[in-house]
Structures are given as C-alpha cells and as structure tokens.
Amino acid sequence: MKSNTIYVCAALAILAGVAGADIASISGDASTSISNTGVSFGAMLDYSYNGGTSGTLTVDISNSTSQEQVGGFLTGFVFNILSSDELATASLISSSNTSFLDTGIENAAPFGVFDAGAALDANWQGGGNPTFGLGIGESGSFFFAITASDASLLDAMSFVGSGSEFAVRFRGLSSGDSDKLLAPAPGTSAIALLGLGVMARRRR
Predict the structure, then answer these.
(1) How far apart (Å, rounded) are the C-alpha atoms in residues 27 and 35?
(2) Which listed residue, 108, 125, 133, 168, has the most CB atoms within 10 A of its CB?
(3) Mean pLDDT over residues 171-196, rounded?
(4) What residues form DSSP beta bridges with 141?
(5) Could you tell me if 134 and 74 are in contact, meaning their C-beta atoms sit under 8 angstroms apart?
(6) How far is CA 66 from CA 3, 37, 182, in A?
C-alpha cells in the first residue's frame, strides 16, 4: 500500500506542476487529409504571456512523412486565434526557414479562412517552388507576436481548439500531387491531459 501511495502522490505532484503549462502537441496524417496521399506532420505549440495585451506563440513543426516514395514538402500552415477579442492578431516575427512569410488572414480552402499563419511566399495555397519548404524529416521553428485584449487568458490550446483550427499544406509530392491536412484534436500534452478549456472562437 505504501508504494501505491507514493505513486499516487507522485502523479498528483506532476499534475500540479503542469497545471500552468502552455504547451500543446498536435499532428495530422492520412485520416485528416483531403487527398490521403500519405503525408503527415507533427507540431508543438508553446504560448508565453508577455504582459499587457502581448504574448508570443512558438510553433515547432515537422514534416513527419515516413515513406520516402511519397516525397513532398510542408509549405505552409495556418491557425485561428480562439480569443474573445475580435481584433486579436498574430504576426510572424521570425522563423528558422526564411522562405516562410507571414500569411495574415488567409483563405485555406476547403477548410475556410484562418486568422494567421506562415507559408512560402505568404501563400498557403501556392507559394512558388515547394522545394523551399520542409522536406521529409525536416523541422522548422516559427515565432508569432500575439496581440489580444485577453492575452493573459490565452494558452497554447487557444490556437488549436478541439478541431479544425490548424491546417497544414503539402506540395511537390513524388506523384506530382499535393495535400491539405487538419489537426483535428490535440495530442497528449499536459494541457490535453488536464482537459483545460479554450476561449470561444471569435466571430468574424
């Protein structure tokens, strides 16, 4: 019984320690794609509140496609800001791949219009030569300045939601095709495990 008590106490301590965590893990694969080409991605979102109406969102995203024969490049991603502030914005301030530019508000058909993102030539649908994107096994880090009246209430899940709030574009596949994926649900991050809620999606 003593050992069980120790394990329970340890688990509670871990949960207490991550209660304020601002990290969310997301992914997408054939089950969330338009064309079921075999491409996939994984991403980690980290949100930090800076004070006042300011925050910083870091998106570490990778082209996790495992089949070399599929090929292709991750050429863009977009997301929504689940804030009560209708004027909330996200602006790309730096990235590890300088070919990705700030999309601003972007039409990511067929998924709809998104609040912000980064893509080759700032174009989620197109964007020039796809080889400047992230190839299989490659990752990129992207940093966004967040401005919202409720910046102190946002967390990493505020840019993911429970589905359909984060979309990724792949182009230049070996077959000549392209694909579009959603991240329908968060992964097993601390926030996902704790089941913390998010702000209602702002109206356009």
Answers:
(1) 16
(2) 168
(3) 68
(4) 60
(5) yes
(6) 41, 12, 18
Which of these, 10, 18, 42, lies nearest to 195 by C-alpha position?
18
Q: Which region holds residue 56: left if phi is over 0, alpha if psi is between -120 and 50, else beta?
A: beta
How many degrees, rounded to 5, is the angle at CA 36 between CA 35 and CA 37? 90
Please name the residues in contact with 125: beta carbons below 8 A apart, sequence gap of 6 or more: 107, 108, 109, 169
Token pair 């709030």 is found at 165
CA 94 to chain centre: 16
Residue 174, CB half-sphere, CA atoms under 13 Å: how many? Answer: 11
118 burial type by CB count under 10 A (0-12 exposed, 13-18 middle, 19+ buried): buried
Strand partners, 147: 54, 89
What pLDDT shows up at residue 81? 98
pLDDT recorded at residue 66: 83
Cα–Cα distance for residue pair 5/28, rounded to 1 Å: 38
Domains present along the chain, CATH in parentheses: 21-194 (2.60.40)
In 3D space, the residue among 188, 115, 111 whose CA is nearest the CA of residue 158 turns out to be 115
Q: Could you tell me the pLDDT band of residue 31, with boundaries at 50, 70 and 90?
A: confident
User: Around Cβ 190, how many Cβ atoms within 10 Å?
Assistant: 19
**One-letter identity of residue 203:** R
Distance, CA of 35 to CA of 181 (rounded, Å): 9
Cβ-based neighbours of 131, under 8 Å, separated by 6 or more: 73, 172
SS3 15: helix
Assessment of whether the complete model's pTM goes beyond 0.90: no
